[in-house]
């Protein structure tokens, strides 16, 4: 950590050049005392990435930024804020601290937070930034969090783990046992120091695979931001052996969509089926990731279009955790009928359909955008059809 970066003239230069062409900046080689061009590029690149993802850091003075990879790997403020609503108590240890965004939000809900980061340079940066952000209830420790726990006698109300999805060779991995640290292998150590554990995993992890690797899972939170799944959160409680509850969350700009169910309910639920009626419903990304295909139909009393098509329909408009559409027309999938409708511009979605969006656009010369929404799918008799809709805001 080069503290000269925090000098007033350097900070002013960084802020003035956030939108500057970086290769051009390298050629200019600005002369600032004790600061290299590489230092400046790192600060500019990383700060720019924080503008929307981490606005608190971006708009605060004297923040020191690590390399851009650390920023890419950290939680966003929106998801970190949500995580902070899941925990309570007096103490929490984050054994994979990183840039400290989660720890920052945990500190708003927990009396004392311990932030462990194996990279001493990053730990130093985070310590400085917490001071700049005027956070006083986080203790930073430059250490492997798991090893720290092994050598500690402390008991915490919560342990938080965000395992690295890259192995020792920096290759991307997907199973928990291949991540660093290996959580399944070390669960007993974690439970020796807390009865409650919160684990963050990437959205690509299959829920059934995670359940096979872990034990004592009480809840799974599937968290999306504006309909894009960002992370899975696993709450483990020592000795828990009941039914796993799944909470799907879609953090939208103006509201939050929440739908929850348990895995046993989904196994027992039965959806009714029908042809497209007056309205079409598409569950949000968190619900689709969680696999609540029967429960969503049962709870909202809506019909599925097909066993393998996770689109739903009914005759009466309802509030729904996802997108809603008014059905204008249903046409067979053929050039003659599509030509009759005369749609040259539309938003296209495929569900349980053999051709992808790109192929369809090329085949029927339909450009992207406009007010029409076309769902290419199959009916109950396996015939290909197009459901022509208008979106309901």
TrEMBL record:
<protein>
    <submittedName>
        <fullName>Class I SAM-dependent methyltransferase</fullName>
    </submittedName>
</protein>
<feature type="domain" description="THUMP-like">
    <location>
        <begin position="322"/>
        <end position="391"/>
    </location>
</feature>
<dbReference type="GO" id="GO:0032259">
    <property type="term" value="P:methylation"/>
</dbReference>
<feature type="domain" description="PG-1098 ferredoxin-like">
    <location>
        <begin position="279"/>
        <end position="321"/>
    </location>
</feature>
<keyword id="KW-0489">Methyltransferase</keyword>
<dbReference type="InterPro" id="IPR054168">
    <property type="entry name" value="PG_1098_Fer"/>
</dbReference>
<dbReference type="Pfam" id="PF22013">
    <property type="entry name" value="PG_1098_Fer"/>
</dbReference>
<keyword id="KW-0808">Transferase</keyword>
<dbReference type="InterPro" id="IPR029063">
    <property type="entry name" value="SAM-dependent_MTases_sf"/>
</dbReference>
<dbReference type="Pfam" id="PF18096">
    <property type="entry name" value="Thump_like"/>
</dbReference>
<dbReference type="InterPro" id="IPR041497">
    <property type="entry name" value="Thump-like"/>
</dbReference>
<dbReference type="GO" id="GO:0008168">
    <property type="term" value="F:methyltransferase activity"/>
</dbReference>
């Amino acid at each position: 950590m080069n503290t000269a970066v925090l000098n007033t003239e350097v900070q002013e230069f960084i802020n003035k050049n956030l939108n500057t062409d970086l290769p051009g900046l390298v050629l200019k080689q600005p002369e600032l005392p004790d600061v290299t061009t590489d230092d400046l590029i790192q600060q500019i690149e990383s700060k720019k990435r924080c503008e929307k993802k981490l606005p608190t850091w971006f708009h605060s003075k004297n923040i020191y930024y690590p390399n851009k990879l650390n920023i890419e790997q950290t939680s966003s403020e929106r998801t970190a804020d949500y995580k902070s609503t899941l925990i309570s108590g007096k103490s929490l240890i984050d054994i994979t601290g990183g840039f400290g965004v989660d720890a920052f939000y945990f500190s708003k809900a927990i009396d004392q937070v311990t932030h462990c980061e194996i990279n001493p340079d990053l730990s130093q940066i985070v310590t400085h930034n917490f001071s700049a952000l005027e956070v006083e209830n986080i203790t930073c420790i430059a250490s492997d969090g798991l090893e720290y726990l092994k050598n500690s006698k402390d008991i915490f109300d919560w342990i938080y783990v965000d395992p690295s999805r890259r192995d020792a060779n920096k290759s991307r991995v997907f199973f928990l046992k291949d991540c660093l640290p290996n959580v399944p292998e070390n669960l007993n150590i974690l439970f020796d120091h807390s009865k409650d554990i919160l684990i963050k995993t990437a959205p690509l992890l299959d829920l059934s695979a995670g359940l096979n690797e872990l034990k004592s899972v009480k809840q799974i939170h599937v968290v999306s931001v504006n309909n894009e799944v960002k992370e899975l959160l696993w709450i483990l409680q020592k000795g828990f052996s009941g039914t796993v509850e799944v909470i799907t969350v879609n953090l939208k700009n103006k509201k939050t969509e929440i739908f929850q169910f348990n895995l046993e309910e989904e196994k027992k639920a039965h959806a009714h089926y029908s042809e497209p009626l007056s309205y079409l419903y598409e569950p949000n990304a968190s619900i689709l990731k969680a696999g609540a295909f029967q429960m969503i139909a049962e709870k909202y009393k809506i019909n599925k279009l097909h066993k393998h098509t996770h689109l739903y329909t009914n005759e009466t408009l309802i509030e729904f955790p996802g997108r809603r559409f008014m059905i204008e027309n249903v046409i067979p999938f053929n050039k003659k009928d599509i030509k009759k409708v005369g749609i040259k511009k539309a938003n296209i979605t495929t569900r349980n359909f053999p051709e992808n969006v790109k192929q369809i656009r090329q085949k029927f010369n339909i450009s992207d955008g406009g007010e029409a929404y076309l769902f290419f799918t199959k009916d109950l008799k396996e015939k290909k059809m197009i459901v022509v809709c208008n979106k309901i805001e």
